[in-house]
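Before a colleague's protein record goes any further, I have to sign it off. Alongside the sequence sits a line of tokens, each denoting a local backbone shape. I want your independent view on whether this chain really folds as the tokens say. Where you disagree with what is written, explain briefly why. This is what I was given:
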Amino acid sequence: MTGRYRQTGFGVIAALVIMVLLASLAAVVIRTSTGQQAASGQDITATYANQAARAGVEWGLYQALTSSTCNTNQVLNFTTQNGFTVVVNCTQTNFNEGVNATGAAIGKTIYVIDSIACNAAACPNAAAAARGDYVERRRMATAGATQAGPPNPGAACN
């Protein structure tokens, strides 16, 4: 009978080991799930930032190409829609490229639109970059415009 008492408690030890392993597995699953949810949230926020920067580029191109307005540090406030601020900068370069049929210079303008979107009050924001939820995206576009001359109907084609 003494041999029988020596084996008592082995099942309890095995059960405790299994419980510890299952608890560790549950902790790993919870930690991984939390990390994935945080990464998914950051990905969605980055998508919003990218779209806000794109909207800034399109707004700047519209201003430049329809009214020849090229301003720097134009702030678009999308905080009520998606929480982003967009800063749009435009640079304009004018030059002449060749001559038309009448010998007049053909004027050209190159616009460079730079748009920065971030989820802070001002963009770019180095101080806010230390936050874990700060997102910033930059988009740039270049467009060219030619100053149109008066049409010359009936003229010979060259």
Summary: Residues 118 and 136 are 4 Å apart (CA to CA). Strands lie at 74-78, 84-99, 105-118, 136-146. The radius of gyration is 32 Å. The mean pLDDT is 83.
